[in-house]
Design brief:
Elements lengths: L2 H10 L8 H10 L3 E2 L4 E5 L2 H15 L3 E5 L7 E5 L2 H10 L17 H15 E3 L8 E5 L2 H13 L5 E5 L2 E6 L2 H11 L2 H23 L4 H23 L8 H12 L5 H7 L6 H20 L1
Antiparallel strand pairs: 1-2, 2-4, 3-4, 5-6, 6-8, 7-8
Helix pairs in contact: 2-3, 2-5, 7-8, 8-9, 9-12, 10-12
Bound molecules: zinc ion.
């Protein structure tokens, strides 16, 4: 299975809270292969994605969706709303304006709903490259207006995307690793996000260290692994605006780590504006990880 396929399986298995159901369904429909009175269908290499499409449509509109397996050599699944009355019912329930490319915001009750909408869009039309090879996420979108709307929604959640054309359609794409991490976090793929963060930082740090010195590999690896753990915790706290509520000495330790992501504790101490020992700094960074783990386990 490809990285993209794995992540889609993970995303399609997230439990959907009641308030998000319509937004998720809307995202799945709007960015699917066909969404009109004549034809309403989606195609995916993941059976779980087509099943989600079918079950959401059933729950929201009580409409029947049939899933068939494609005959091409790469297995694909196709989910289709076969009955015209069902299709009309679905179309009538969403704002017709959006067929022209405007996204209706009526289903976005809360931030979580908008995130679910993005998840639906990604499941319907998204692709992600394996982060070990390159960083890239594409949403293939039919109209420019829809591409622009999606880009703006993503921007509201700290995911900066660009638009290019491809054939008759448009692509909303993301190329920076930290933006891809933000997108994965937004869509709820927490496990994957962390794996991606690790791959990214190890890769970048290895490139740098290989260029810079030629010293003990095991030590570098240890330093990097500790740094990843610390940065994951700090980034998490920053994102949730919790860092600023910590004691000052923890805030300054966090800032120091973020400023020098690849430095050893010894080098961090040298770069600190206030005098601090290695064990003192180590203690503070450990404390931050403890707080992070405590919050995560709640
Ligand atoms: Zn919601």
């Amino acid at each position: 299975m490809s990285f993209c396929s794995d992540i889609k399986t993970e995303l399609s298995e997230i439990r959907v809270s009641r308030c998000c159901m319509q937004a998720l369904t809307y995202g799945l429909l709007l960015f699917s292969r066909s969404f009109s009175a004549k034809k309403m269908s989606m195609q995916s290499e993941n059976l779980s994605v087509t099943r989600l499409y079918a079950s959401m449509i059933k729950k929201n509109y009580d409409a029947q969706v049939t899933i068939t397996e494609g005959s091409s050599k790469n297995t694909t699944y196709r989910a289709e709303v076969g009955d015209e009355i069902d299709r009309l019912k679905i179309l009538a329930s969403v704002d017709f304006g959006m067929i022209e490319g405007k996204i209706s915001h009526e289903f976005f009750n809360r931030d979580c709903c908008e995130a679910s909408f993005v998840r639906g869009a990604f499941l319907s039309c998204g692709q992600m490259s394996d982060p070990e090879k390159s960083y890239r996420v594409d949403f293939s979108v039919k109209s420019q207006a829809l591409a622009e709307e999606l880009r703006d929604i993503l921007a509201r959640h700290d995911v900066k995307a660009n638009i290019s054309t491809r054939g008759k359609g448009f692509v909303v794409y993301i190329k920076r690793s930290e933006m891809i991490i933000n997108l994965l976090t937004l869509m709820g793929a927490s496990m994957r996000s962390l794996e991606l963060i690790e791959t990214t930082i190890i890769k970048e740090a290895n490139n740098k260290t290989n260029r810079m010195f030629n010293c003990d590999g095991a030590n570098i690896k240890k330093t990097i692994e500790a740094s990843i753990k610390q940065r994951t915790a700090i980034e998490y706290l920053i994102k949730r605006e919790m860092l600023s509520s910590l004691p000052n000495e923890l805030i300054s330790a966090a800032n120091l780590r973020m400023q020098y992501p690849e430095s050893s504790l010894k080098d961090l101490c040298k770069n600190s504006t206030e005098p601090i020992t290695v064990s003192g700094l180590n203690h503070r960074l450990k404390k931050i990880i403890e707080i992070y783990e405590d919050i995560k386990s709640r």
